[in-house]
């Protein structure tokens, strides 16, 4: 099969490899579309290796058709056995940038009837990451106050929708007016362009009680700023470190005074059991809303997979609003 390889110069080139062999609890998918994630860029640069035993090929989410089912693949959310030709989307630990990929059956989603493969490829990683952060980790309650950094990103756009589905007040930070408008269109109550306004200053003036949950992909100096705007018993969830790995001024006294919880999480290296439960929980809580369009994937651009370099460049430059998708041909 064809796949996209990272060569010795960290360039992306097409190559050939053998087809994956599935275990009894897995399915083999013919990949139709691939979701691009920042983790792909990090792995390409040698900074985010796949978990031990997983495919070295890039790619964490795909959509496509089942071409083979293992003996113990089980059933979908409608209690129907997975079968060949089922249209699905999925979370994978690696191997997505290929014509075929193997997937744990419990990490499969049925593709909603009205969805394109491109839409399916834009769902798994972002919605599961956002869901994990808001609910599994931070236990978001209805009508809470939520701050989401990088609201126009894939995870940010998903988190806005999930929080609004629980009647929360959502404030987000973005880098441009175009991204601000995109977040407001998704339901965010306020979108702060950090090029023009400091979110700490805004929060002091408009949110004196602070935020119950803060979703942060920036880290760096944002860690200290997040502490300043968090509510009593608030929860800060850090998912990435686009702003750097160190925070020079961390006020432990404020952490103690506010009884804050700081969590850091990745999804890729979680256990198979954890991911299976996360998929099941998301399906139970939000699959119906996804299928009916009450929540939806946000797609910035779709590229043929031969243009993967353009997609990576756009993400590296933070130019996307929502997901970047590769179509396999």
What does this structure look like?
The model has no long low-confidence stretch (mean pLDDT 96). This protein has 2 domains: 2-123 and 268-327, Medium-chain alcohol dehydrogenases, catalytic domain (Quinone Oxidoreductase, Chain A, domain 1); 126-264, NAD(P)-binding Rossmann-like Domain (Rossmann fold). The chain has helices at residues 38-44, 117-120, 124-137, 154-165, 177-186, 199-206, 222-229, 252-258, 272-292, 308-316, and strands at 2-6, 12-16, 26-36, 61-69, 87-91, 100-104, 108-110, 145-149, 169-174, 190-193, 211-216, 230-238, 261-264, 299-304, 323-327. The chain is 30% helix and 27% strand. The strands form 3 sheets. Strands 3, 4, 5, 6, 7, 14 and 15 form a 7-stranded mixed sheet that branches. Strands 10-9-8-11-12-13 form a 6-stranded parallel sheet, sandwiched between helices. The chain has a two-stranded antiparallel sheet with strand order 1-2. Its EC number is 1.6.5.5. This is NAD(P)H quinone oxidoreductase, PIG3 family. It holds the Pfam family ADH_zinc_N.
């Amino acid at each position: 099969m064809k796949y996209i390889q990272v060569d010795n110069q960290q360039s992306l080139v097409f190559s050939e490899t053998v087809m994956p062999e599935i275990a009894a609890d897995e399915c083999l998918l013919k990949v139709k579309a691939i979701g691009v994630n920042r983790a792909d860029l990090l792995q390409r640069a040698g900074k985010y290796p796949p978990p031990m035993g997983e495919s070295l090929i890039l790619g964490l989410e795909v959509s496509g058709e089942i071409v083979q089912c293992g003996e113990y693949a089980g059933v979908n959310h409608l209690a129907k056995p997975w079968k060949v030709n089922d249209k699905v989307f999925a979370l994978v630990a690696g191997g997505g940038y290929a014509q075929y990929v193997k997937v744990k059956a419990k990490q499969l989603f049925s593709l909603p009837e009205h969805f394109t493969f491109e839409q399916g490829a834009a769902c798994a990683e972002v919605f599961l990451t956002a869901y994990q952060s808001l609910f599994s980790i931070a236990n978001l309650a209805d009508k809470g106050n939520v701050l989401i950094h990088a609201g126009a990103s894939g995870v940010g756009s998903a988190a806005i929708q999930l929080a609004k589905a629980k009647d929360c007040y959502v404030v987000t930070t973005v880098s441009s007016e175009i991204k601000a408008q995109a977040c407001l269109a998704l339901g965010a109550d306020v979108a702060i362009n950090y090029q023009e306004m400091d979110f700490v200053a805004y929060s002091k003036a408009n949110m004196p009680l602070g935020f119950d949950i803060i979703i942060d992909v920036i880290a760096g100096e944002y860690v200290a700023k997040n502490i300043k705007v968090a509510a009593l018993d608030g929860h800060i969830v850090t998912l990435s470190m686009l702003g750097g790995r160190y925070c020079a001024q961390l006020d432990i006294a404020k952490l103690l005074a506010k009884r804050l919880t700081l969590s850091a999480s990745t999804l890729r290296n979680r256990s198979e059991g954890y991911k299976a439960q996360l998929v099941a929980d998301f399906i139970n809580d939000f699959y119906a809303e996804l299928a009916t369009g009450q929540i939806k994937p946000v797609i910035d651009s779709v590229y043929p997979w031969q243009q993967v370099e353009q997609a990576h460049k756009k993400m590296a430059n933070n130019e996307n609003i929502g997901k970047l998708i590769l179509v396999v041909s």
